[in-house]
């Protein structure tokens, strides 16, 4: 990990792009697996497989799995566990399109920008109010509340799914801000293992009433979701270690585009016109935060 004031590195944005594509793939696989397997079991399997992936990468790279700043690490893992539980619960719902759900899950960059001045003492910039307005309008278009759209509002179960996705985004944003407070002595693998094992334990407790043996197809979906999620977690952790939170988080919106493609091409979930416009506005809100930071980025001398 690096200090929050350290120079942002271009590699951070590559890591975040890889993470976004992998998380979108995980979302699609989770939607497939959750059709037959309880989301608690799918989430527990993803977390456990993610821990094994991180441990394997640590062994290959010779990275330490020791935890030095236990307080900051537990804070990050607690928020991350809440985000994972809400995410898998939301993804298990089929009454809201995969692209819509992923868009709401990716409100985290706006949450990060809004809370960075409070939690990290990082300046959010003058564009934050515009980003919040764009994102809020986008959320309204996706969720279609009855007081705005009348009789064409989403069903109660779809609204629950949307609410869970927004809550997951809030928890995820807080987890990423907590991650920025973790000391420089923690490796990305140590952070991922701690979080994954914490989440696996919590989700295992939630899954006890729903234990079952999945079919071979669902087991494959669950396994691949765990691998994609585990690798994505490492890539995201590495990205946040190399650049400031509000900047690198916006690249995560690539997951919205990829998830919308999965939904349209593989699940037959063509988004409504209002939902598509909502996606665009939420993405625009995140880019409103990120683009000024890119323009302000000073080129570094080659070494």
Mean pLDDT: 82
**Structural domain tally:** 1
| Class from secondary-structure proportions | mainly alpha
- Percent range for helical residues? over 70%
Distance between the termini: 21 Å
Topology (SSEs and partners):
Elements: H1 11-33, H2 39-61, H3 70-92, H4 98-105, H5 108-119, H6 128-143, H7 146-149, H8 156-180, H9 188-207, H10 216-242, H11 245-249, H12 254-266, H13 273-296
Helix pairs in contact: 1-10, 1-12, 2-3, 2-9, 2-10, 3-8, 3-9, 4-8, 4-12, 4-13, 5-8, 6-13, 9-10
Plain-language structure description:
The chain is mainly α and 303 residues long. The chain has one domain (11-208, 216-293). It is 74% helix and 0% strand. The protein is built from 13 helices and no strands. The chain has helices at 11-33, 39-61, 70-92, 98-105, 108-119, 128-143, 146-149, 156-180, 188-207, 216-242, 245-249, 254-266, 273-296. The longest helix has 27 residues, at 216-242. It is globular, with a radius of gyration of 18 Å. The model is unreliable at 1-6 and 298-303 (pLDDT under 50).
């Amino acid at each position: 990990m690096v200090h929050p004031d350290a120079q942002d590195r271009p590699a951070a944005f590559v890591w975040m792009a890889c993470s976004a594509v992998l998380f979108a793939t995980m979302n699609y696989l989770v939607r497939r697996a959750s059709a037959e397997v309880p989301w608690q079991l799918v989430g527990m399997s993803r977390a456990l497989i993610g821990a094994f992936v991180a441990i394997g990468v640590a062994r290959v790279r010779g990275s330490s799995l020791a935890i030095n700043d236990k307080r900051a690490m537990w804070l990050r893992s607690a928020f991350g566990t809440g985000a994972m539980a809400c995410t898998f619960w939301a993804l298990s719902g089929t009454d809201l399109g995969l692209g819509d759900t992923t868009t709401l899950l990716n409100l985290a960059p706006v949450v990060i920008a809004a809370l960075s001045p409070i939690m990290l003492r990082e300046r959010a910039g003058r564009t934050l109010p515009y980003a919040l307005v764009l994102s809020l309008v986008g959320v309204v278009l996706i969720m279609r509340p009855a007081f705005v759209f009348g009789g064409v509002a989403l069903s109660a179960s779809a609204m629950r799914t949307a609410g869970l996705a927004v809550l997951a985004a809030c928890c995820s944003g807080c987890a990423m801000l907590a991650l920025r407070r973790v000391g420089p002595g923690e490796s990305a693998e140590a952070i991922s293992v701690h979080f994954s094992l914490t989440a696996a334990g919590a989700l295992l407790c939630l899954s006890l009433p729903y234990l079952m043996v999945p079919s071979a197809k669902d087991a494959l979906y669950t396994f691949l979701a765990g691998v994609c999620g585990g690798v994505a977690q490492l890539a995201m952790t590495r990205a946040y270690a190399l650049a400031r939170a509000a900047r690198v988080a916006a690249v995560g919106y690539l997951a919205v585009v990829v998830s919308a493609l999965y939904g349209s091409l593989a699940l037959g979930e063509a988004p409504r016109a209002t939902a598509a416009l909502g996606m665009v506005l939420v993405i625009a809100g995140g880019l409103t935060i990120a683009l000024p930071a890119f323009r302000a980025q000073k080129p570094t001398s080659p070494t």
